[in-house]
Fold this sequence. Notes:
Structural class: alpha/beta
Amino acid sequence: MPTIAGIHHVSITVPDIDQSVPWYSEVLGLEKLMDEKHPNDDGYAVVLGTPDWRFCVGLHTHPTNEGEGFHETRTGLDHVGFLVSGHAELEAWDARLTELGVEHSPIADREGYAVLVFRDPDNTQLEFICLG
């Protein structure tokens, strides 16, 4: 059976790409890698990521977007979890989010993992998670 090596990118539709690109760049420390025009001229994406393209976040805008905020109870994306190397890294992200004024949960230590929850400007739930 074929296997999956990992998640390469996540793509999120946002109502205000001019707000979201700098937020994701600053908070996650990602750099702009490319602009991508959608087929049929129905919008575009800005791809942010690590310089080696090993991890990317695509932020998409569509002219038909009505500007509503994200809500995980609708069909589609519920949340995005970013794996970090360990609890110390999770603590470093906690400090960074605090420094940037990004509202977030306290680190929740669970059986087998720990998680830190926050939301982007459009209310999309994001998490940093470590295993162990």
